[in-house]
Write a structure and sequence with these properties.
It comes from Myroides pelagicus. InterPro entries: Metallo-B-lactamas, RibonucZ/Hydroxyglut_hydro. Keywords: Hydrolase. The protein is α/β, with parallel strands linked by helices. The protein has a single domain, classed as Ribonuclease Z/Hydroxyacylglutathione hydrolase-like (Metallo-beta-lactamase, Chain A, 4-Layer Sandwich). Helices cover 21% and strands 27% of the residues. It contains eight helices and 14 strands. The strands form two sheets. Strands 6-5-4-3-2-1-14 form a seven-stranded mixed beta sheet. A hairpin with a 2-residue loop joins strand 9 and strand 10. The longest helix has 11 residues. It is globular and about 55 Å long.
Length: 262
Amino acid sequence: MFVINFYILEVYFLGTGTSQGVPIIGIDHPVAHSIDKRDKRLRTSVLIKWDDVTLMIDCGPDFRQQMLTAECNYLDAILFTHEHADHIAGLDEIRPLTILHGDLPLYASEQVMEALKKRYDYIFTEIDRYPGAPSVEQHIISGGEPFTIKGKEIQAIDILHGSLPILGFRLGELVYITDAKYISQIEREKIRGCKVLIVNALRIKEHPTHFNLDEALAFIEDIAPEQTYLTHIAQDLGFHAEVENILPKNVYLAFDNLRIEI
């Protein structure tokens, strides 16, 4: 059960894998044969409990399975980092939540909201709505201004995923970043001083649109948080246990169903 116990903020890693998950269908990679459950990764998403506010960041194709595993049946909002399928493809699965609790607030940049409307036109249309379609509230956000959800201030962070503008989020002493390739010095100032940083580290080899491990570690060294958890991990990064053994102090590989408190 996803509950808060004497902590201000709790993070539940629903998924820590890359766009195809780990293992990948049809790919005979050594990690695919691992018996370590930490090497089985659903698409990247987190559930955050901040006092009495429950938030999800991204809503990928594994949403239903992830919510059932977390035993979570209520969300105050979903925040979207960007519009790629592994981050939005589960939106239709919010139907039970909206039937139970009414309109679900969605927070996204204008470009992401437009992508959601195009992909899920039946959710957003006001004409001839299908009675069983999910019902949502739309909230446009950007990196320029903080926004609030039930009194909790959240700062969006402008990031580049290759050439695609995306968002990270700062929630109190937690910063969540996925799919980053470049973060400007101006945006890094929004991140400094956080206690816990969650950031992507796709693989060992360089990638055109994601931090590889070396790039992620250089970014972590610059920000200097107390603890860091790596996410959005491909099987090419290697076996979880082996990679953890080479990481610097206070840097950890996240894994599915890991729970941390801040």
